[in-house]
């Protein structure tokens, strides 16, 4: 609106000559913007052009800090250390072994540090020769179908693709594997050989630990001989000093505000209250339990069909993937530890690494209460290893208890026998040990330092995302068994899941943290390709998803290939899971043939392997004449091995090949992903 006052104001503004006009200001802003854009673009291009595997060229303060943090050589030099122990770990065992080796280095005047290869510039290995009497040890697990662990993947690829000169690097390798799997310790064996090819010097022969037998015994035996080789190679002697120095120190956190205290989160504080995509091993999704129903029709065993609700999570899965479930320990066992040690489980504490150079500041999320640590972060149900026996000795007030612990911690034949019988055969966990050796009263914070991390449990997904895009299904047997000491041991995850029953009312539904782990267990790309599936018991789980996916394709009008399923259980009227579903798939033509073996429904036991032998012609017709795919899921120790032997025998007889030719044929099937196994021991 115009008025005389408004015109006057406008007139005044126009007629006065300011020092800087509006046009000047606008031009100045444009110049600054263009200059800033040019500067940052150049900086970004410079940084990106310099990116190379395991090589970081500092171009900013953050890059300098990153180089400093990733350079294990600088840490070794600045702290006067000569021993570095790298670990490739999926479940924490390799990391634990690495820590034990680094700690023992002090007995040989070799100050050590533990390092995660994922956080290190591994190209620095070429500089190890600059440190006098230096040694790099690798504790490496083989994971899945002969794969490196997630944290060792980059290092593995660097070794494969690089040609670094590692002359002057002294090294030793210990592998963690399982003989029931085909690719036993494959990654450790490769790393051991590749380091030598690149010019490094092997100080001690590779050790191969078998988790199907006694990996602790394998490790201890190898470790003892390792130090003998180290002494011989470097011309040093053992000091004889036992190193019981704590890796972490206790910090009282009673004054910490409640909102700064962890309550079970895996990594990020309050992550379950404020969920953020993407979800992974360090950031699981808190899923609601949508369905939890019993699959067994009768008997004293239980098998659960459970559906996790992922609607709105943005999580995607493929048929054949696994879902990881984060369990928690029972309150009964946790309370028992508090009672046995007369400890206040609700006291808030933190464990802080005494090694200021370590990238791992805490053994688990801190601060938290002892109750939280024992419930969510620590494994209190597995068999403790010998180093825990050793650490408990000082807390035994009864000489008999002390002697028993000393014996089990020793590497003598008598000690190994006692540990095997009293701990492994009798299946004692830390609670049982504290009960049966009543004078042993360790400080609770020290016990929390010693116990391994509670690991997530993996389950084959038994659904197809084509049919169930908003939920993930699993098929899980409830684990309960009585030990030789008349104790009932319960599976941590399955017993928790059994309690999570959804309600039909307005009450909040039970939840549990999960994330999806990708798998190579996949249907053929073409729906017309015929397949054979062998999955007794819960080995049926991934095949339920396979069948759903093929059924979906059939209903869409697409051509689908033959689907033959071999399923077995004890009794048809007791544990034939998903019976109605499978019969429907047979009736509608999705499932071409359903071969069933009920092992205890007749005097002589009958298994799926017997049916495979009987159907040799059908087997060869699909895998030999039609180039179909074969899948096995279930027990690795016996079933999967027996199936492999039968396949080789059928290929020999029906394909008219020699044993060597048949083995090569089956090997080629595996390489072509036409023979896939998803097994466990």
Compile the SSE list and pairings.
Elements: H1 4-15, H2 22-49, H3 61-70, H4 72-78, E1 83-88, H5 93-104, E2 112-115, E3 135-143, E4 147-148, H6 153-161, E5 170-177, H7 186-197, E6 201-202, E7 207-210, H8 215-234, E8 248-252, E9 285-294, E10 303-309, E11 322-325, H9 331-340, E12 348-353, E13 368-369, H10 370-377, H11 386-392, H12 399-409, H13 413-425, H14 430-436, H15 444-450, E14 457-460, E15 471-477, E16 480-482, E17 488-490, H16 492-499, E18 511-517, E19 531-534, H17 541-555, E20 563-569, H18 572-575, H19 579-587, E21 593-598, H20 608-614, H21 616-625, E22 629-635, H22 639-654, H23 659-671, E23 675-680
Parallel strand pairs: 1-2, 1-3, 3-5, 5-6, 5-7, 19-20, 19-22, 20-21, 22-23
Antiparallel strand pairs: 3-4, 8-12, 9-10, 9-18, 10-15, 11-14, 11-18, 12-13, 16-17
Helix pairs in contact: 11-12, 12-13, 21-22, 22-23
Binding site for FAD: 457-460, 475-477, 481, 491-494, 680
Function: This enzyme is required for electron transfer from NADP to cytochrome P450 in microsomes. It can also provide electron transfer to heme oxygenase and cytochrome B5.
GO cellular component, one term: endoplasmic reticulum membrane
């Amino acid at each position: 609106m115009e008025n005389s006052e408004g015109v006057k104001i406008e007139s005044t503004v126009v007629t006065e000559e300011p020092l800087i006009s509006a046009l000047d200001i606008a031009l100045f802003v444009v110049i600054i913007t263009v200059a800033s854009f040019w500067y940052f673009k150049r900086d970004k291009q410079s940084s990106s052009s310099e990116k190379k595997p395991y090589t970081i060229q500092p171009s900013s303060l953050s890059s300098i800090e990153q180089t400093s943090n990733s350079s294990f050589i600088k840490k070794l030099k600045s702290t006067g250390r000569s021993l570095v122990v790298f670990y490739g770990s999926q479940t924490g065992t390799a990391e634990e072994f690495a820590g034990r080796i680094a700690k023992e280095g002090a007995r040989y005047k070799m100050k050590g540090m533990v390092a995660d290869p994922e956080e290190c510039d591994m190209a620095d290995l070429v500089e190890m020769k600059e440190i006098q009497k230096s040694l790099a040890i690798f504790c490496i697990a083989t994971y899945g179908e002969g794969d490196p662990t997630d944290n060792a993947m980059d290092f593995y690829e660097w070794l494969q693709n690089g040609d670094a000169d590692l002359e002057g690097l002294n090294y030793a390798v210990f592998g963690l594997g399982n003989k029931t799997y085909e690719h036993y310790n494959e990654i450790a064996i490769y790393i051991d050989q590749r380091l030598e090819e690149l010019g490094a010097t092997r100080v001690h022969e590779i050790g191969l630990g078998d988790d199907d037998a006694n990996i602790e015994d394998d490790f201890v035996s190898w470790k003892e001989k390792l130090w003998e080789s180290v002494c011989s190679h470097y011309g040093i002697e053992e000091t004889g000093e036992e190193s019981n120095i704590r890796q972490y120190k206790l910090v009282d956190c009673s004054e910490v505000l409640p909102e700064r205290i962890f309550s079970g989160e895996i990594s990020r504080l309050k992550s379950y209250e404020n969920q953020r995509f993407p979800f992974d091993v360090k950031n699981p999704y808190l899923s609601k339990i949508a369905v939890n129903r019993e699959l067994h029709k009768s008997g004293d065993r239980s098998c659960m069909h459970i559906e996790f609700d992922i609607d709105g999570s943005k999580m995607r899965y493929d048929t054949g993937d696994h879902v990881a479930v984060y369990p928690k320990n029972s309150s009964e066992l946790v309370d028992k530890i508090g009672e046995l040690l007369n400890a206040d489980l609700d006291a808030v504490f933190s464990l802080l690494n005494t090694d200021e150079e370590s990238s791992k500041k805490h053994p688990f999320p801190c601060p938290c209460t002892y109750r939280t640590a024992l419930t969510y972060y620590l494994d209190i149900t597995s068999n403790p290893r010998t180093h825990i026996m050793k650490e408990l000795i000082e807390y035994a007030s009864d000489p008999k208890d002390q002697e028993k612990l000393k014996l089990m911690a020793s590497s003598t034949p008598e000690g190994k026998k006692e540990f095997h019988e009293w701990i492994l055969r009798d299946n004692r966990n830390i609670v049982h040990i504290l009960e049966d050796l009543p004078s042993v009263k360790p400080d609770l914070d020290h016990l929390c330092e010693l116990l391994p991390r509670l690991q997530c449990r993996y389950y084959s997904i038994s659904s197809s995302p084509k049919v169930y895009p908003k939920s993930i299904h699993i098929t899980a047997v409830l684990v309960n068994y009585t030990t030789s000491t008349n104790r009932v041991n319960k599976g941590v995850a399955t017993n928790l899941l059994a309690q999570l029953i959804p309600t039909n009312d307005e009450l909040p539904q039970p939840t549990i943290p999960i994330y999806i782990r990708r798998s190579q267990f996949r249907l053929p790309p073409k729906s017309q390709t015929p397949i054979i599936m062998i999955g007794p018991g819960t080995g049926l789980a991934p095949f339920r998803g396979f069948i759903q996916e093929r059924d979906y394709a059939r209903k869409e009008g697409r051509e689908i290939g033959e689907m033959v399923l071999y399923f077995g259980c004890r009794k048809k009227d007791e544990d034939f899971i998903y019976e109605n579903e499978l019969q429907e798939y047979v009736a509608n033509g999705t499932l071409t043939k359903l071969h069933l073996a009920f092992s205890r429904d007749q005097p002589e036991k009958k298994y799926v392997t017997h049916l495979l032998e009987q159907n040799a012609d059908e087997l060869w017709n699909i895998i030999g004449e039609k180039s179909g795919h074969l899948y096995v899921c279930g027990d690795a120790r016996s079933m999967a091995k027996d199936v492999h032997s039968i396949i080789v025998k059928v290929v020999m007889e029906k394909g008219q090949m020699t044993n060597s030719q048949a083995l090569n044929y089956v090997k080629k099937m595996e390489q072509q992903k036409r023979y896939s196994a998803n097994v466990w021991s």
